[in-house]
Request: fold
Amino acid sequence: MGIYNLLCNVLVLKNPKELYKKYSKEINEQILRLNIVRIVNIIWVLLFANSILVLTDILIFRGKLAESAYKNVFYLHLSLYPILLFYLALYHIKIKNLNNYKYINLSINIVMIIWSELMSFNAQFIHSQISAYLLTLFCMSALLIMPPAQSLVLFPSAFISLLIGMLITGIPETILYGHITNSFFMVIISLFISIISYWTFCGHVINQQIIADKNKEIDALNEELIRKVQSQTDELVKMNSTLELEKLRISLFANISHEFKTPINVILSAEQLLEYKLKDDQSPISASCMKKYMSSIKQNCYRLIRLVTNIIDINTIDCGNMNLQLDNQDIVKATEDIVLSVAGLIKNKNISLIFDTEMEEKVIAIDLDKIERVILNLLSNAMKFTSPGGYITVNMFEQDNYVVISVKDTGIGIPEELQSAIFDRLVQVDRSFTKSSEGSGIGLSISKSIIDMHKGMIYVNSRVGEGSEFIVELPSYTIEGAKAEVAAVDELGRIEKVKIEFSDIYL
Ligand code: ADP
Reply:
């Protein structure tokens, strides 16, 4: 063992024992698989080489086949066929337990050594060579991977059996010494080669296994990392949405408190002025002045009502409690009535209002009250953002089973990047644009929710400085069984609604 260890150390082939032990199962399995492939390939090469030798026997040494040595060579060549074919068949049968191939491999090694020795004994009578034996040993050590214990038994045994065979066959002494020297060195060389290739192969398998194990570790770490990143991302998303909500809440409070404060301040100032004037006996308040203050108080009360209604509605929508009360209604008449009801207000601002429709009458299923609210919101916005001298056009037509209502103005327009955002809550385009009018930025978001509930669409086409066109598309269908209802005209109610919706516009 000392020499063996020394050999391994000298050859730098020593693999750490614990690794060798750890991976011995994998090493043995890979050795077995490699040897099976190599033996099958060697068998094919041998079958080919043996066929050439048999042909040589027949064609070249035909005349000498009567001599027993040549005849034996010929028979030995022939005998190789059944041996090789038998093993070939064995390797092609799927043997369940891979370990059993260990014995088949060992047996073919022994059979080939015996065969090569028989060839070598016989060759003494032809050319006094042991080339078959030497070649077999060399190929075995170089091409097959054998555990050192096996090669340490196999090769010396082959040497001893050759020696005994040669002594029995009575080879002349001079030749015998030469053969002993040759076969002894061959055994030593074969042992060297075999041990080197065994440990090199072990090192290769150990490296492979270490890499595979490390890869597994990396994969596990990677998975763990992905899981951690995922859970942290989820947490961040949660935090982010909480933060967004918080931001929205803060901006809602800031915006709404501003919206509340302005009309309350106006009402309070008007009330204080009135009080002051009423106390002042020297210059009694005129009726027109009184009317002016009262109207200002009223308008700001409407603004407060509008704000509170919007907040309640947004809440109702958020809670999913806003329900539609669908009736078959003439949408053309409904739209025309609303346009007419705001015509005076719009005219007062010196804006031209045009109503145009391609349909005389169109009955569809709508919640009249809510649709009126949407159109009022669009009209009040159009008026808010259009300067005196401008135009507001309301157009109605039918397209692809939808009733289209377009409210177009020649106002300040909306920048492209904000066109879809204005339907979100609390979004207002730069306030500096809209000094003469105020708003909470909730109106369009309520309108969108109402139109969505009607399974319709609302969108805007706009260009800054040129104007905006808000388009509402409502599905054109009626509720079966329900009669087309003629909406009861509640003029007073509508006037109130208009006043409320237009309350944040100062004329
Ligand atoms: P508000 O109550 O503030 O009017 P809306 O939701 O109705 O809220 O409108 C949101 C914002 O969309 C407005 O503040 C304004 O900036 C923009 N906007 C709406 N309609 C128009 C329009 N016709 N022209 C220009 N800007 C508009």
About this structure: Confidence is low (pLDDT under 50) at residues 431-437.
